[in-house]
Write a structure and sequence with these properties.
Blueprint (H helix, E strand, L loop, with lengths): L14 H30 L96 E3 L6 E3 L14 H13 L4 H12 L5 H27 L3 E11 L2 E9 L4 E6 L4 H7 L8 E4 L3 H4 L5 E4 L1 H13 L4 H22 L7 H18 L21 H11 L1 H4 L1 H4 L8 H17 L5 H19 L4 H10 L12
Parallel strand pairs: 3-6, 6-7
Antiparallel strand pairs: 1-2, 3-4, 4-5
Helix pairs in contact: 2-4, 2-15, 4-14, 7-8, 8-9
């Protein structure tokens, strides 16, 4: 960096010295402008132009997102043929209350002895009075008339203690903590307010520990099923555990979910998670380098990330090619969606060639638009710093097959929204509770949430499957059951 602390005496300077000073000032202004642009770019990044979460946008929300989706032309609300799910009267109500007139509205005559001529009805849907039911299990002994031996009846397997909570109470407790994300204190309040019996924090912890332990074989089966899947989504996000930053990793499909917490974000975590190292299908992710290190499988990059980055390049760095690339990627997506809608399983070779060539042409033209960064006086070791637009351009060119994987294989989605949706609720848990106090609590949460998310994806009632866990008859996803 040039030093301009002292004002030069221009009167005493020669023409050559003045020229050298002007050049030095011009170079310094150019460097400072580039630095200012970089810092402004960091401040202007938000959830619309980067991978930052919407919650990080702060009180000054970004301007309304210009959606990349095209108008469907349909009116808002339910469409023709949409199945109605509103409240409807039932033929056989549980209770009937009759409201008869006691006297004539006109003359006041007593009508109590008169039969009704007709009636109209209204129905009120409400909950019954909620309270705990206590079932006593009695084990009876009998004497054998032949040999005199005394034999005892057997308690059901789920009845293990002299006094205990049943499977429905335990299922509701886990549902509240690991699906609805209620902290233990609020769960205790819920049971006290609704059922007039407050469960202690220790009891809630024990129930949750028991559930996670029983689910371990099923969660392991889910992990194995993901290894054999054709397409799996991967993502990771920071998580607070025992006051330290750790990482929540997810691997998922539209029917399976597997979570794991790990101190590391990169390769070591993926190795310990033990899905990607053995996976041979197509891995969908956001381009984090650790995922790309696994070459035994195919890769598909999240184009939702690319669209946000391209939007930033167009709006902040004024890169016209970025807007063309957005239009190009969306045009390919629209072509694929139309083909799928017609029942096609792939695009014709001619169509793929045309779309691929357009993609390459945009990248080639982009090189002419990206400015060079001003040289630094003291170059650092390693790769030369490039303009952010050049970094994005290089990624789109180097990983072209992964960017366009959704075009070449209709099983591959356009984006990684599946994994992002799966990881979102665990971020909500962190906002509610601030993280996990103990590592074992985080691991239990991952096991239980993997099970519940998988059940929900497959249309199974999560309360019922949790009851099955405590009855010793847990539901198992079909993909995770050995043939």
């Amino acid at each position: 960096m040039k030093s301009f602390d002292q004002r030069p005496d221009i009167v005493q300077m020669s023409e050559a010295e003045k020229d050298a000073l002007l050049i030095a000032q011009w170079e310094e202004i150019k460097r400072l402008q580039a630095r200012l642009k970089e810092l402004e770019g960091q401040l202007k990044k938000d959830s619309r132009t980067s991978s930052k979460a919407p919650s990080s946008d702060g009180p000054k929300k970004p301007k309304r997102t210009r959606s990349q989706r095209k108008a469907s032309g349909r009116k808002p609300g339910g469409q023709p043929g949409h199945e109605y799910h509103g409240l409807e009267a039932v033929e056989k109500p549980d209770h009937i209350e009759v409201h008869e007139p006691s006297q004539c509205e006109e003359c006041g005559e007593d009508l109590s002895a008169q039969a009704g001529l007709n009636y109209e009805a209204r129905q009120v849907f409400d909950l019954p009075v909620l309270r705990f039911e206590v079932t006593e299990h009695r084990r009876v002994c009998k004497g054998c008339p032949t040999c005199g031996e005394i034999s005892w009846g057997a308690y059901p397997p789920a009845v293990a203690n002299v006094v205990q909570y049943g499977e429905r109470v335990q299922a509701l407790s886990v549902y509240l903590s690991d699906y609805q994300l209620l902290p233990y204190g609020r769960q205790s309040d819920f049971f006290g307010d609704v059922f007039h019996r407050r469960l202690s924090v220790g009891t809630l912890q024990t129930i949750r520990q028991r559930c996670a332990q029983r689910l371990k074989p099923i969660v392991e089966a889910i992990r194995q099923a993901l290894i054999g899947a054709a397409v799996v989504h991967f993502d990771e996000s920071g998580l607070r555990v025992a006051g330290q930053r750790q990482w929540l990793h997810v691997a998922s499909t539209s029917t399976l979910t597997y979570y794991r917490v790990h101190p590391k974000r990169g390769r070591q975590a993926l190795e310990d998670m033990a899905i990607l190292p053995a996976f041979q299908g197509t891995a969908i992710h956001d381009g984090y380098s650790s995922y790309g290190a696994y070459e035994q499988c195919d890769h598909g990059l999240c184009n939702a990330h690319h669209l946000r980055e391209l939007t930033f390049m167009h709006e902040h760095h004024e890169q016209a090619w970025a807007q063309e690339m957005i239009a190009g990627l969306l045009a390919i997506k629209q072509t694929v969606d139309k083909a799928k809608g017609r029942g096609k399983t792939e695009l014709s070779g001619k169509t793929r060639n045309v779309l691929t060539q357009r993609y390459k042409t945009i990248l080639d033209q982009a090189l002419e638009q990206i400015p060079e960064l001003p040289p630094v006086e003291k170059p650092t070791r390693g790769r030369k710093k490039q303009h952010p637009a050049k970094n994005l351009l290089d990624r789109l060119r180097t990983h072209q097959s992964a960017v366009l994987a959704f075009m070449n294989d209709f099983q591959v989605p356009f984006d990684n929204n599946q994994a992002e949706r799966d990881i979102r609720m665990l971020k909500v848990q962190q906002k509610i509770s601030g993280g996990f106090r103990k590592a074992h609590g985080a691991l239990r949460f991952c096991d239980i949430r993997s099970y519940l998310s998988t059940a929900r994806k497959q249309g199974v009632n999560v309360i019922e499957v949790l009851q099955g866990v405590f009855l010793g008859q847990p539901w198992k996803p079909p993909e995770a059951v050995p043939a």
